[in-house]
Amino acid sequence: MAGDLLLTGLSGLTAFRNVLNTTAHNIANVNTDGYSRQRVELDARDPQLSGSGYVGRGVNSGNISRLYDQFLSVQFRNSSSAATELDAYFNFASQVDNVLANQNIGLSTALQDFFNAVQGVADDPTSIPARQVLLTEGEVLENRFNTLDNLFSDLSAQVNSNVQGALSDVNNLAEGIATLNQQIVVSSAGGNGAAPNDLLDARDKLIDDLSKLVNVSTNTQENGAINIFIGSGQSLVLGSNFNTLGTQPSGFDPGAVDIVFQQPAGNVIVTKFMTGGRLGGAIRFRNEVLDPAINTLGQVAVTLAFAVNEQHKNGIDLNGNQGLNFFSDLQVGVVNIAGSGSLNISFANTAGLTSSDYSLTTDATNTNYTIRRLSDNTVFTGLVSSGSVTQDGLTFDLTGLAANADFRVRPTRSAAGQFSVVINAADEIAAALPVVSSIPITNTGSGQLNNISINGLLTNTLPPGVSLTYDNSAPPRYIVAGATGGPLAYDPSVNNGDSYTVNVAGFGDISFTLSGQPANTDVITLSDNAGGVGDNRNANLLSSLQTALTLSGGSATFQDVYGQIVADVGRRAQSAESNRAAQQGLLNQTIAAKDSVSGVNLDEEAADLIRFQQAYQAASQVVLTSRTIFDTLLGAFR
């Protein structure tokens, strides 16, 4: 009996010693990140049959298990990945939003000031100070475009640095998880199936940290090792093996980097599959905010430079010379991805210009080409033998192409950085038009020619002999001399105020409106505007470009498109901020739920410590009692 009592007491001592050790372990790790509370499973020993029934034989301390909920852990990782992605996205997007909307950095004020200066020249075309102000405001506009381009370049570098830093962390975590997988497999095999709880916690902590970098999913093997998949299902860790992620320059954009799985057979690009976490947020920001903002800003730069230059070259300056380019000629960016040959692209017009990038490929026989607009995957095809093709305001010169060519075209990507003022002096501003109209005093009717504009000016001197003579015979019309494009049908009751265009060989197109009631044989003469230093008509046409619908297929002005950039980035930043706050709330709830299961509560552990200490003391009393009984028995037999 004493022996049974002793064994029972010793079982209690052993069990409660384990319980006390586990409780102390919980208390010691109360602030250990990723630690899961542990608990000793106590089981009653099999009873012994006696004459009076089954008599208990004490307690066994079974497995030491950790309080862990797989569902809550998965939920936590998903929430953590989403919250971190939105946080990274918002932090980047808010930087762009703050820059674009800032009056001291943004483009809106500079555009307004530039066109105000153009109007100043139109109001006083002979004023050198007014012309100098226009040059200064042009340089301010250049500085704004260049500053925004530099800021965007810095942001692109930040994104690259963020991606590379995150990948370094991913690789370190992958190696750590693979190492712990191996240790867990060995420990589980050597522990007769007992779970190495602290190793499991360490591994789960690494997986939790990984979820902050990229989306994570897991699969547990029978031996206890865990497989890790990231992004859209790319395998990162398989048992004790792991893949390494890296970066390489993007063939499409040398300023950006692609994420690759580094494999013996060659790198595999997985950029588009990386979702969630810091990586997903940085990549999504680049695709949704940064690249569109850069391209659209470039679209404004190209369209503004193209429109101002074309109009300025149609005028004459204070010295009577034809106007030069006011802004620099901007070049289309072309990157050769594969194949030999060359591709030259120029701006044909800006009315159809988009902010999209393009790809151009040829087949194996260099017979057919395919142009793909990457923003919406619209495809345009044709024959290479056609020599050239114009699409979306771009002229593609196909004569240098070769078989299996693959080019990427970025029409507006670098335009803001290229934008500059190239005119050198105030007297070179072409405020005047090279053509004036005159009406002889011999005319008896009231026919008028107004609103002259020039297109495609080739020289600053109009050849003599250009005139319009009215013929009122059926049908009534103006007979054109010295130019092509006539006769010009003009019935005062029908065509009053209509626009017409004639072409003077070697000079260019002259557009104008006709009005009034001309008499038969009335003449209107067009002549060279020699000495027209006080003429402001070309300056007025330059000023009207501010409100001209020159972008988005003829539906938006320069300020409209820039305003669209500001509004779109602001909307995305605001949406990211709202979603981030909501996701953070969900994450906090998940953390609270996870901690309620796995977290260490010091009050609860302190109470358990007292309770188990008392149990241990009581078990020791059982041992002492068994000893007393045993000593009594020995004394009786002596």
The number of E-state strands comes to 27
Distance between the termini: 19 Å
Largest sheet: 5 strands, antiparallel
User: Which structural category do the helix and sheet elements fall into?
Assistant: alpha+beta
- Which of globular, elongated, flat, extended, rod-shaped describes the shape? elongated
Number of domains: 4
> Which runs of at least 5 residues are low in confidence (pLDDT < 50)?
none
Helix content: 40-55%
| Order of strands in the sheet with most strands | 12-19-14-15-16
Strand content: 15-25%
- Name the average pLDDT: 90
Radius of gyration over C-alpha positions, nearest whole angstrom: 41 Å
Q: Count up the helices.
A: 11
Describe the protein.
This protein has helices at residues 2-28, 70-101, 108-123, 128-190, 197-211, 277-312, 415-418, 492-495, 537-544, 558-598, 602-637; strands at residues 38-44, 48-50, 53-55, 59-66, 216-220, 226-230, 234-238, 241-242, 244-249, 257-262, 268-269, 333-338, 344-347, 358-362, 368-373, 378-383, 388-391, 394-397, 406-410, 435-438, 448-455, 466-471, 477-481, 488-489, 499-504, 508-515, 523-528. By secondary structure, it is of the alpha+beta class. The strands form eight sheets. The chain has a five-stranded antiparallel β-sheet, with no helix packed on it. Helix 4 packs antiparallel against helix 5. 36% of the residues are buried. The model has no long low-confidence stretch (mean pLDDT 90).
